[in-house]
Write a structure and sequence with these properties.
Layout: H1 3-6, E1 11-17, E2 25-31, E3 35-39, E4 45-50, E5 55-60, E6 63-67, E7 75-78, H2 81-94, H3 102-122, H4 124-133, H5 137-154, H6 162-175, E8 183-186, E9 193-195, E10 201-204, H7 205-210, H8 213-228, H9 231-239, H10 241-251, H11 268-280, H12 286-294, H13 314-318
Parallel strand pairs: 8-10
Antiparallel strand pairs: 1-2, 1-7, 2-3, 3-4, 5-6, 6-7, 9-10
Helix pairs in contact: 4-9, 4-10, 8-11, 8-12
Length: 323
């Protein structure tokens, strides 16, 4: 029986603080295969930490604070005494014997460098694919918040009119399936709409004020279609470059300075996803076809005539920046 086998059934409640977020989240902590598993109270996997990398970094009252990265951007607080003793015992055993002799260490380092150079030269798509696969939804929330905050600094900021925000949330609920994405309006944003990796959609003030319900519905549906295709996440990974994506795979952390993820010119599959959803919802995709034509993308529609999207509180939505 290994040290982890001994504690495989042990679970405890903890507080998980994601990178870049001040508020903690109550989670369930358990042992995996040489890892510490962190799941929601509804048993949804959130992330996992390598037990070899997990370190005790402090205390807060009776709680012990752990982190798995040197910068301590992501921390976990645990009060349960049995879990604290178990983590201490397992991490001590996994620390392993002394470091290998220098000769062997340099051999492994040389082999690692050779593999990295081979990947960089021949398989960037493979690197991006692995990075995408290894990115949990919980990590996308933190990085999307950082991207939004940077865009807010570059623009006049988020429009905060409370009636407009309520109308915007109702617009999203009436147009898109549950759970609908958050719609956020930035004054001075360019482009007109931008989907972030966690699914939230940024809209420009100019677009909101010049739109009609049906044209805004088409724009939001297109951004939603991009999220459905994981386009924003893929753009972020690709913007890191092959070497940056490799660093991310190894460290599990996005860089402090994030790249821009502006929409790419070719997103025909996102148009198709948005068109199919609008048709299934009984909403005319004609405004979406006009957007596609403006980009030189053909988007065939069935001959059936469907009603345009309507929204009663659209005037409140358009005044979100003027309140």
């Amino acid at each position: 029986m290994t040290a982890i086998d001994k504690y495989v059934r042990l679970e405890a409640i903890g507080w998980w603080f994601e990178a870049g977020r001040q508020e903690g989240r109550e989670v369930i902590v358990s042992f995996g295969d040489e890892s510490l598993q962190i799941t929601s109270l509804k048993d949804v996997p959130l992330t996992h930490w390598s037990l070899r990398a997990t370190r005790r970094v402090g205390t807060r009252g009776e709680a012990v604070i752990y982190s798995a990265d040197p910068e301590q951007q992501e921390i976990l607080e645990i009060e349960d005494a049995d879990m604290v003793r178990a983590i201490s015992a397992v991490t001590s055993l996994l620390s392993g014997p002394a470091t290998p002799p220098p000769r062997r260490r340099w051999l492994w380092r040389g082999l690692g460098v050779a593999i990295i150079l081979a990947l960089l030269g021949q398989s960037p798509p493979l690197i991006y694919s692995v990075a995408n696969t290894l990115t949990p939804p919980s990590r996308l929330i933190g990085v999307s918040t950082r991207l939004q905050e940077r865009l807010q600094q570059k623009t006049a900021g988020e429009c905060q009119g409370w009636q407009g925000r309520r109308a915007l949330a109702a617009f999203s609920r009436s147009l898109l399936p549950d759970p609908p994405p958050a719609l956020i309006v930035l004054d001075g944003l360019d482009p007109a709409a931008l989907a972030l990796p966690d699914g939230r959609i940024l809209l420009s003030r100019a677009t909101i004020e010049a739109a009609t319900p049906e044209s805004l519905a088409a724009l939001v549906a297109l951004a939603w279609g991009e999220s459905l295709e994981q386009a924003p996440q893929s753009r972020l990974i690709k913007a890191l470059g092959p070497l940056g994506a490799l660093r991310y795979i190894v460290s599990g952390r996005f860089p402090a300075l994030l790249p821009d993820i502006l929409p790419e010119g070719d997103h025909g599959s996102s148009y198709i996803a948005a068109r199919d959803y609008l048709l299934e919802s009984g909403i005319s995709p004609a405004p979406l076809q006009l957007l596609a034509q403006a980009e030189g993308i053909g988007l065939p529609l069935p001959p059936a005539t469907l009603p345009a999207f309507e929204f009663e509180s659209f005037d409140l939505l358009q005044n979100i920046c003027a309140e």
